[in-house]
Fold:
Amino acid sequence: MLPILDWIKRGAFAPVVLLLGCVAAENNAESVVSRETHVYKTIGKLEIHADVYRRQDQANCPVVLWIHGGALILGHREGLNHEFRDGLLNAGYVVCSIDYRLAPETKLPEIYKDIQDAYAWLRKDGPKLLQIDPDRIAVMGGSAGGFLTLSAGFLFEPRPKVLVSFWGYGDVAGPWYSRPDPFYCKRPKVSVEEARGAVGKEPLTHSKGKSQRGKFYLYCRQNGLWPREVTGYDPDRQPGAFDAFCPVRNVSKTYPPTLLIHGDKDTDVPFEQSVLMDRELTRVGIKHELIRVRGVGHGLGDVDPERVRGIHERILEFVKPYLK
Structure:
């Protein structure tokens, strides 16, 4: 089982190769896959990018909006598993993988604005620029990207057609995040000086070339400070402030159909987080499924390839009816 720092290093969702390639379509024909990089938002001089993957023969296609993980502190838009990406392309979807501003330099309310703006950009400019159908959008993401995916279920208007959360979480104020974590406390202790020295003050949209940022995450987990550092609020003194940041508190009748995928030996994001979302979705009556990946930690990096392909197939089966 891999904690998030090792998961990022080893590439549970390994970075894609930045080349044009060919993939087999469902009819066994081949078509060239392109990657286009677009600026979906600019704040001052800071550009925030989206990579769009598509087959050249696609038109008026449904689209998957992918949101990367990394505890909102690390990661970048290229951290999308290429086999999963190609499976989506083969199924006839366009894939849009986005960056967003990272914490702690940017707090969660502004990160929410970034993903909302990415969705609005897809809907507004997507039909002409990308030849996609703006009314057939799925949102997917892993870990913190899974959390943002679940947040999209109540933030985005109109609602996405379907959500897929990989080892995500619905509660950012609970003890698992707001108290020292026993697993991470076994690691060498990170001092406050090391942690603060690993991050900066200016906003940034990816962690490439900034490997020391992991120390800040480790410091947060060892001291139970992640909710405060990422949101700007104290869950003990301002518990009500977290109503706006916890998907599990925001499931309503308008919430999209949702697929939850989670390893039951996860030492970074407890499997219970997906169980809690599963219970709330059941209570409200939202169509959903929970795939329990038995004996597996955070991510699918150590899982047998055949088993991974089976999970990918179940994802495609789940989303297909909603993206017709």
Summary: The chain has one domain: 4-322. Confidence is low (pLDDT under 50) at residues 7-29. The radius of gyration is 19 Å. The CA atoms of residues 122 and 129 lie 9 Å apart.
